[in-house]
Amino acid sequence: MTERTTHTGKSTRGSWPVVRVLRDRNAGLYLAGVVVSGFGSSALGLAAGVWVKDLTGSDGLAALCLLALWAPTVAGPALGAVADRVRRKPLLIAANLLPAGLLPTLFAVDSPGALWLLFAVLFVYGVAGVVQDAAESALVATAVDPRLLGDFNGLRMTANEGMKLVAPLAGAGLYAAYGGPGVAALDAATFVLAAGLYAALRVREAPPRRPTATWRRRTAEGARYLWEHPGLRPLVLAGGATMLCAGVGGATLYAVVDALGRSPAYAGVLYAVQGAGSVVAGVLSGPALRRLGARRYGAAGVALFGVAVAVRAVPSDAVAWASGAAVGLGLPAVLIAALTAVQRGTPGPLLGRVSATAGTLVFAPNVLGLAAGALLVETVALPLLLPSLGAVLLATAVALGRRREAEAVPARAERL
To answer: Could you tell me if 338 and 398 lie in one domain?
Structure first.
């Protein structure tokens, strides 16, 4: 293995990816912030729907919690422009302190008539999350050694998925003991702690350039750069297509469980298996990116995901478990590859807008996929639907794999 050194001067010869990242002070602080805030967010994500269900008895209103959180993603390109107007570190801190200050207002939600406050807070929560993701992606590219970005993004995925395995159970227990306000208080505390961790980052940021264009034009610049970049566009579009299929496949989960002759609670087991696969994928992604490159690594992940979705039509517990683990291993690959490529291939002044635009193009299709899947699972038999979905994913993998690796920044970016 070739010897590498971080910007702290420490050798990375022979060390595991997690060691290489954690030796970097800024990377370690970032990951700690992700773990802390992710724990609170995952706990609240479960509790909010249960809270609404308990107060109203309505599945539809409970589902609106997810919509309130996801809706701001559509405005990602415009919200990402904020991250290019100000210094990213203070913005990242503010994006954590804002929801921390709003969450205690949920103590007043004790009847169906007060639910508007919960939905409003969740919406602002979602807006802050979009801005935070853009600021974080842009600041990471500055604060973390570029050679560690693939490992960092993989371990960030590991941290997120690890919290999804633990936090919902903790949130459910806390909700049972103290109700929704108890979970809201926990989430607020985690945001404050995360803000403190981000404040400890050591990073020098150049003052942002004074804008010479309108907000609409600045937003369009990020989208235009992403579309014209020969290396980023295929990855981001493949990521969006993959997440669209992931949404459709996710909507079939309970039908798969029913085909196995299991109770709905068995879905939690399959979620856990998938989460465990994603944890492993995050650890392996850094070495895989270095060995294969972003395009081939993303294509391999999409192909594995496609095979896993197709075989899920087989009514077997062993196949379902293997499929869940393969989904966890394959699905994150194109997401990590796209994020890392955006961070490496985008000039700093544009990085907030480009990151947020990429996030919208990748994750917004998941919501459409969930809606389409809810319709398809009622009208198309699983032995036809799941293999067809797998075929679409394999076609996506082939299309991405055939493209030439293009990591260079287009010449026009040098003028920005």
So the answer is: yes
